[in-house]
Design goal:
- The chain contains 24 helices and 10 strands.
- By secondary structure, it is α/β, with parallel strands linked by helices.
- The chain folds into 3 domains: about 120 residues; about 325 residues, ABC transporter type 1, transmembrane domain (ABC transporter transmembrane region fold, Up-down Bundle); about 250 residues, P-loop containing nucleotide triphosphate hydrolases (Rossmann fold).
- The longest helix is centred in the middle third of the chain and has 53 residues.
- The chain is elongated, with a radius of gyration of 39 Å.
Length: about 725
């Protein structure tokens, strides 16, 4: 404790000594000026060097070393007066007003304040290079993302260029309105001349009209650019998402994906178009206003600009907290959307288990979390606005005080002061906008980063195959497959799995639930990438086939078929181009669906509703079969398709399927009638084929298949659905 007290006392004594030395040198320089010992500018620069050396020496004595911030403060503090006076003499051919000994103390305080403000501005704008690597990486990533968004605007550069031209015209016209407002006041206050008054009013009106027209054209062009850009990015993002492997959609929630599509793409559009629009407009306007204000009173302008570093510091603190809360809100909103989407999609399940209130509470909890973050964000913004307005109020009071002094001394007119006040009010807003827009752009770029993560993601299942043979036999060979799902890499589903499917034969997969039957179907559809082994189609690796070609030749009908909103015709021809009505009707007849479709009011143009909700499960199943058959596939995969069909429809569908003698069929079945029709039955257990043969051969073997039949086929009921032999 005593050591800390001594250190503080030692530091205070050193600071006092530095102030005394600096004031002594300041008074000495003023005395030299009075005695005309040296020229004005030479004296200033010599004094700056001496003061800098003295303060640096004292700082080294106290601290032992100099930190970068302290070096900047000392340099600015000592050099600013010399730079200021040199610039004044070069630009305005007059000496500064801080030369007389009587003004030494006030000038010393003014220069100290200006130096501190300049050092603060430098610290905010160009921080030390010794900052954490994470901060550098974040800023570099933001710059890269911003440039990528800018490149995406390339097709809309003409709109952006037109908007920029009108933006510049609007700003230039707007800047001259306060100038001519002050001019009118001076004309009315002095000797009134009608011609000058009319001229000033006419110019002010023309500038106002030009500003309004240009601003309207600018807004229209940029809004068109934003709309076109957002549409393009949404299409690109949706296309990138649909190319991802199935495992991607099993790990990413649908609410998050829809949030990226709906919200983050719009934020990307704002990143360049709105924010850069505001940035350029404000920057041009700020520079123009500073130039006009310097022409009115360069002294008041320098006083007003001292507000800039303070505003920058406040904005920097605000942006740090606001961006963090905004990012948390984006994630929470995505989570809430996911919860709502999940319930709407599964409303039947929620209703059947009487879970409506529970789901409403869950959604409400997510919204309450969003509200809490929003409240914190609003509190941060309220404090920021309060401090911002107090800073502006203090600057206005100082400006009016010094403006009155300048009018009394004849350095300004009343009209000039009025114009300056109008400019100052707009300048403060412009400076705050410049500080704010940088943070808002970072926030928008953060949203762009999430979109680019999806755009850049490469599917883990390759679709780069090129093989498209004119004739496909449909011979399939599973060779020593080993596979685990991406979400559960430690749980092996298939282990050394081998099986051969021959053209013209039906192979049935049977076995307990969870043993890998549907996994074989997913792998044959190239939904996942194998960990080991290979699947051959006509003795060629499955991954070497063209993606579109493969899914035309290999068709799947699942147990719970999915139909899309649209007509029956659209659903049967889904994914095909140029499919005629005759082809659709032929496939519907094979699937025993044509008869019930004809009885519908609009026939094949009947809307199926969302998810096929306007049709029964049996009708959806038959339309799904027709959708597969219309492709005339060489390999047909049937995942328990007869579970929703009555005996008559089941027999008709199975009979139609046997009319394709050269077609390779893979069936996952739980009905004895379907299994008995198979040319080959493969019993799956432990992730591999345990038994293989016809129904009679396996029954004679009295192995696992025999036990399944004896255990789970009841008298008069040819299903073993009681065991739930559905699979992954």
């Amino acid at each position: 404790m005593a050591g800390k007290t001594f250190s503080l006392f030692h530091t205070a004594a050193a600071v006092t000594a530095a102030v005394c030395v600096d004031l002594s040198l300041l008074y000495a320089s003023g005395l030299l000026e009075t005695l005309s010992v040296s020229s004005h500018l030479a004296r200033l620069w010599v004094c700056a060097a001496l003061r800098g050396s003295a303060l640096t020496g004292l700082s080294l004595l106290v601290l032992g070393d100099l930190r970068p911030l302290l070096v900047r403060v000392i340099a600015l503090y000592c050099l600013l007066p010399a730079v200021f006076e040199t610039g004044s003499e070069a630009l305005h051919h007059e000496k500064g007003q801080c030369d007389r000994l009587v003004d030494a103390r006030s000038c010393w305080l003014l220069r100290a304040a200006a130096s501190g403000a300049a050092a603060l501005f430098w610290e905010i704008t160009f921080p030390d290079s010794e900052q954490p690597a994470a901060g550098k990486e974040t800023r570099q990533k933001s710059r890269v993302l911003f440039l990528r968004v800018l490149r995406l605007y390339r097709p809309h550069y003409l709109l952006l260029l037109g908007g920029s031209v009108f933006l510049s015209l609007a700003v230039v016209c707007e800047m001259f309105i306060p100038f001519y407002t002050g001019r009118v006041i001076d004309i009315l206050g002095d000797q009134y001349q009608l011609s000058e008054f009319r001229s000033a009013l006419l110019l002010m009106g023309l500038y106002s009209f030009g500003s309004s027209v240009s601003a309207g054209c600018r807004g229209g062009l940029l809004l068109c650019a934003i709309s076109a850009f957002t549409c393009r990015v949404k299409v690109k993002l949706f296309g990138a998402l649909t190319k991802q492997e199935i495992g991607f959609f099993e790990t990413i929630k649908s609410g998050e994906i829809t949030h990226r599509l709906s919200k983050d793409t719009e934020l990307m559009g704002r990143t360049v178009c709105l924010n850069v629009n505001v940035l350029l407009r404000t920057l041009i306007k700020t520079l123009g206003m500073i130039s006009l204000m310097m022409n009115l009173s360069w002294k008041l302008t320098l006083l007003v600009l001292m507000e800039t570093p303070v505003t920058g510091l406040i904005q920097n603190i605000y942006d740090t907290h606001y961006q963090r809360l905004s990012l948390a809100m984006q994630n929470s909103m995505a989570s809430a959307n996911e919860a709502a989407t999940e319930v709407v999609y599964s409303i039947r399940v929620a209703r059947s288990f009487n879970a409506e209130k529970q789901e409403a509470r869950r959604y409400g909890d997510r919204l309450m979390g969003i509200q809490a973050l929003r409240n914190r964000r609003d509190i941060v913004r309220a404090v920021y606005l309060l401090v911002q307005r107090l800073t502006g109020l203090v600057m206005q009071v100082l400006m009016l005080y010094y403006g009155r002094l300048f009018i009394q001394s004849g350095q300004m007119t009343t009209g000039n002061l009025l114009s300056f006040i109008l400019y100052q009010a707009d300048l403060g807003h412009s400076i705050r906008t410049l500080a704010y827009i940088a943070g808002d752009m970072l926030n928008s770029v953060g949203a762009a980063g999430k979109v680019f993560d999806y755009l850049d993601r490469k599917p883990q299942v390759s679709t780069d195959g090129k093989l498209k043979p004119d004739r496909l036999m449909g011979h399939i060979s599973f060779q020593h497959l080993s596979f685990a799902y991406p979400g559960k890499p430690n749980k092996t589903v298939l282990q050394d799995f081998s099986l051969e499917l021959k053209p013209g034969q039906m192979t049935a997969l049977v076995g307990p639930s969870g043993e890998g039957k549907s996994t074989c179907v997913s792998l044959l559809e190239r939904f996942y990438e194998l960990q080991d082994g290979e699947i051959l189609l006509d003795n060629k690796p499955l991954k070497s086939y063209d993606h579109r070609y493969l899914h035309e030749k290999v068709a799947v009908v699942s147990q719970d078929p999915v139909l899309f909103s649209g007509s029956i015709r659209d659903n049967i021809a889904y994914g095909l181009t140029g499919c005629s009505l005759d082809q659709i009707q032929e496939a519907a007849c094979q699937a025993n669906a044509h008869d019930f479709i004809k009885l519908l009011a609009k026939g094949y143009d009947t809307e199926v509703g969302e998810g096929g909700g306007q049709l029964s499960k049996s009708e959806k199943q038959r339309i799904a079969v027709a959708r597969a058959l219309v492709r005339k596939p060489q390999v047909l995969i049937l995942d328990e398709i007869t579970s929703s069909l009555d005996t008559e429809n089941q027999n008709k569908v199975l009979q139609a399927l046997t009319e394709c003698p050269n077609q390779t069929k893979l069936v996952i079945a739980h009905k004895l009638e379907t299994v008995k029709r198979a040319d080959q039955i493969a019993v799956i257990g432990g992730g591999k084929v345990e038994e293989r043969g016809t129904h009679r051969q396996l029954m004679d073997l009295k192995g696992k298949y025999y036990q399944l039949v004896e255990r789970h086929f009841a008298e008069g009921d040819s299903t073993w659905a009681e065991n739930g032999l559905t699979d992954r």
